[in-house]
């Protein structure tokens, strides 16, 4: 057996063609506002990738950059301006923000209609309850990828490793909504290897290079790796996996491009729904 490669890079490109056609039909071009606080080079690169993706599908973007010393109040004021700007359809606040800022308060200040990155408490709650909401971009992108490749979810045991507000937790809720039986593991999980060994679907969202060992994963599983570390390593060790699992996301070229695609796709939806 050779694993099906869940090629997010190619799927994101295909979906951009469709998005472009939808953008071209709109009278006003949708604008995504990006907010980058501080000067972390990796964050700046990610934000630039999002801005570039907007450009490729014909959407506009507005990049706000704030200094490392920004206070919560200053960031809240910026968000409030963007909430009130009728040209702006979506707001992305790049995580993480500097430590002096109350990130949760700032995420939650984003208008629910403009929360195209799915970071607000209200958006999370609505998504978890199955109401209309924009999902958190990374797990939403993963769900689109799994759906595109026809990966069956109902009745499957999914093990999500990580419970962060924008990745692990919403991922677990989305898989639950798709009728998986979901286990969520985290840093206090006592028997990670055993939990992973029971998974039909494994999602690595830990942020530690190859913490999840290939040997823990059972034959035929679906392996989704959200991690990305220097040297092209993910959160999941891939040695020997390709010949014995049923499907696998590459790193890079798997989850990352789908995250960006989910963000711009939800920005367009916001424009179509609310502009
Ligand atoms: N491709 C993409 O678009 C994106 C990729 N990422 C990547 O995904 C990964 C996770 O990101 P993010 O969720 O933001 O990270 P966080 O650091 O916010 O969360 C990491 C999670 O992993 C858990 N964890 C840490 N150590 C262990 C351990 N030894 N055993 C089990 N669980 C552990 C933590 O548990 P606890 O809660 O107990 O502390 C926490 O819930 C990173 O590699 C990041 O780069 C992130 C966002 C987008
Ligand atoms: N509010 C918020 N929302 C986010 O969605 C968010 C965030 N903050 N903070 C940081 C993480 C990280 N993130 C990535 C997006 C794309 C790639 C991506 O496309 N990576 C390429 C590789 C890129 C390269 O080569 O450097 C790939 O995996 O193929 C990676 C990581 C979104 N994040």
TrEMBL record:
Q: Which UniProt keywords apply?
A: Amino-acid biosynthesis, Histidine biosynthesis, Hydrolase, Methionine biosynthesis, Multifunctional enzyme, NADP, One-carbon metabolism, Oxidoreductase, Purine biosynthesis
Q: Output the Gene3D superfamilies linked to this UniProt entry.
A: Leucine Dehydrogenase, chain A, domain 1, NAD(P)-binding Rossmann-like Domain
Domain Tetrahydrofolate dehydrogenase/cyclohydrolase catalytic: start-end pairs: 6-117
Q: What is its EC number?
A: 1.5.1.5, 3.5.4.9
Q: What's the short name of a Pfam family annotated to this entry? A: THF_DHG_CYH_C
Name the GO cellular-component terms.
cytosol
Family affiliation: Belongs to the tetrahydrofolate dehydrogenase/cyclohydrolase family.
Please give the name of this protein: Bifunctional protein FolD
Q: Which organism is it from?
A: Amphritea japonica ATCC BAA-1530
